[in-house]
Amino acid sequence: MTDIAAPIPAVQRMTLRQRLIRLVADPAFQARAARLPLLRRIVRREGDAMFDLVAGFCHSQVLLALVRLHIPAQLLDATAGTATLAARAAMPVDRMTVLLNAAASLGLVKQIRDHWSLTVRGAALAGVPGLQGMIAHHDVLYRDLSDPVAFFRGQVRTELADFWPYVFGAGGATDPGVTATYSALMADSQALVAADTIAAVDWTRSQHVMDVGGGTGAFLTALGLAQAHPRLTLFDLPAVAPAAADRFAAAGLTPRTTIRAGSFRDADLPVGADTITLVRVFYDHADATVAALLARVHAALPPGGRLVISEPMTGGAAPTRAGDAYFALYCMAMRTGRARSAAQIGTLLGQAGFVQIFSPAGARPAITTVLTATRH
Ligand SMILES: CC(C)=CCC/C(C)=C/CC/C(C)=C/C=C/C(C)=C/C=C/C=C(C)/C=C/C=C(C)/C=C/C=C(C)/C=C/CC(C)(C)O
Ligand SMILES: C[S@@+](CC[C@H](N)C(=O)[O-])C[C@H]1O[C@@H](n2cnc3c(N)ncnc32)[C@H](O)[C@@H]1O
């Protein structure tokens, strides 16, 4: 069913800003402005930006096709001609030409003489750990979003949550095959989050760090390699946590690490750490679960102990594309959690008895935002 927006009610007294908005929406003004030397550039820029919004889904599908056909990986190995790429993709040459030109328009590849190579952006796509894996499962998200009005009304039984079964608690993460798939993607997509989180925080005072919801140990491994001194404890669900042992062993970190399996929904957290990290954990959960988890974190830390939270956040009063037009929708499709702003998380921290809540600069907000807090 198509929804037509209700007509805007008549405005009694228009502010200056509203008058300006009405003027810009007037097709006659748009046509006049496009011819005026001073306004022409703005009109063109706004038109291009509007077109990008209109065509965003096509752009994403071009990206998805490239990833599914392993074109970034192929072009990282060697440049290739259109016919070669078409043959490898079992695609007619003329259709591959359309795909590659579309990718070139998006700045991902470029044709030099008869051969295609990656651009700087295409090379970043090929190299960012986990990014192609995230893109490859976006078909699930897009199916959930295919009727966006029903989606925003909460009338779609989304599929995305089935892709990440652990969010429904320990019972959701018992099949080792399923957990292995999502744990690998989660760990791969962690690399930039871990790098920015580690860089944003001063770890010199931390003697013992416990990563709660630490998956298969990607964050603690990165931290252990960056900081030689702290002891490291990983806490995650019984179906997930044991796999961290191989990662710790491969990094030579086994003597410094402890793995504790359990559910933070069902029991208290182990004590002993002076620093607890929660990386990409809150946004999977409702406020009540986060509040209960924070109470357990508070109880597990000594007075003066530190909590480090890191995950993609919304922009709050200043919405951001990554936070508000991607992660917020992603979390909504996950059904159990939501993307929050730093201010919202700060409020939850304050209610749980944490003080000195800071957001250190340094992290790339599209990748993650970091908050630190102290247990009172
Ligand atoms: C060679 C020439 C000519 C010049 C060189 C100039 C030069 C040196 C340029 C620099 C090039 C460079 C190094 C670029 C680097 C670019 C990088 C690092 C780009 C990184 C982009 C990262 C992105 C887009 C990350 C996206 C992450 C996403 C979408 C993650 C999603 C994660 C989700 C949804 C997690 C879900 C988990 C759950 C289930 C909710 O719990
Ligand atoms: C989005 S993943 C983040 C994993 C890791 N911190 C990262 O950033 O890659 C959320 C993690 O929380 C864990 N988790 C979910 N519910 C949990 C619970 N009740 N008790 C312990 N861990 C839980 C999941 O198994 C998963 O590893």
Automatic annotation (TrEMBL):
Q: Which Pfam families does the annotation name? A: Methyltransf_2 (PF00891)
All copies of the O-methyltransferase C-terminal domain together span: 142-354
The GO terms this record gives for MF are:
O-methyltransferase activity; protein dimerization activity
Q: Which key words are in the record?
A: Methyltransferase, S-adenosyl-L-methionine, Transferase
Sorted alphabetically, the Gene Ontology BP terms of this entry are: methylation
- The keyword Glycosyltransferase is assigned to this record: no
User: What InterPro entries does this protein map onto?
Assistant: COMT-like, COMT_C, SAM-dependent_MTases_sf, WH-like_DNA-bd_sf, WH_DNA-bd_sf
Instruction: Please indicate which superkingdom the organism of origin belongs to.
Output: Bacteria
The name on file for this protein is Demethylspheroidene O-methyltransferase
